Task: inverse folding
């Protein structure tokens, strides 16, 4: 018997997310972000959220929409340079921010998914990143002890998925999505195309359905480009 994890849409998928929740958001910049669930959370109006994401999006799209609604209490990210409202809230003290190296962000997602409580890393030793953290020494090198993330929800965006929650990501939109999909207590996936079990090539599945609790098919994705850069035509 197959397991059907399909919900009606974004609003249904995030219906039990309450004030004060800790949420992981997949994506890198504006690439592969769960657009529909972010919009649903803005409409829902939940607040005091802790957000774990590679960055804060831009002012008028993605997580930036939640910032404008003052829904975030804390932002955990590795890069935040494209969002003026984020900068304003940080400098005014309205938003708590934890900046961590990008590789450490990925690793803390990974070990959460694997059930490993902490990991030693080289990145950040001797910097502000190390403040308040345990340090161990091995073979003459110092390592920071980084804790696994403890997220109530992980919200990801995939190219294709089936009703059992198996996911396939496309090209660079894969980014943080598979790592975060493993790491949330409840994982929500929005997909561009939802198919029946057996229609996905098993060799192409990036996230097995065992990690996914809810899935739905979105439509009319904007897929914005954060910084559009093109080469000049060579004569």
Result:
């Amino acid at each position: 018997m197959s397991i059907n994890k399909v919900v009606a849409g974004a609003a249904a998928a995030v219906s039990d997310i309450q004030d004060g929740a800790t949420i992981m958001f997949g994506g890198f910049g504006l690439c592969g972000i769960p657009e529909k669930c972010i919009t649903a959370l803005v409409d829902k109006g939940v607040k005091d959220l802790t957000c774990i994401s590679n960055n804060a999006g831009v002012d008028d799209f993605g997580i930036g929409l939640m910032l404008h609604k003052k829904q975030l209490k804390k932002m955990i990210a590795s890069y935040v340079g494209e969002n003026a409202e984020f900068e304003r809230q940080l400098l005014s003290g309205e938003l708590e921010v934890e900046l961590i190296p990008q590789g450490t962000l990925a690793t803390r997602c990974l070990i959460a998914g694997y059930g490993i409580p902490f990991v030693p890393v080289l990145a950040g030793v001797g910097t502000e990143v190390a403040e308040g953290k345990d340090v161990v020494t091995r073979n003459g090198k110092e390592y920071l002890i980084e804790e696994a993330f403890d997220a109530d929800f992980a919200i990801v965006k995939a190219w294709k998925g089936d009703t059992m929650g198996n996911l396939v990501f496309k090209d660079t939109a894969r980014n943080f999505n598979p790592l975060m999909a493993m790491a949330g207590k409840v994982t929500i996936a929005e997909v561009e195309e939802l198919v029946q079990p057996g229609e996905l090539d098993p060799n192409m599945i990036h996230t097995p359905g065992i990690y996914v609790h809810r899935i739905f098919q979105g439509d009319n994705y904007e897929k914005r480009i954060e910084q559009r850069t093109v080469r000049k035509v060579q004569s």
Observations:
- The first helix runs from residue 10 to 13.
- The chain has one domain: 19-118+147-217.
- Residues 27 and 175 are 6 Å apart (CA to CA).
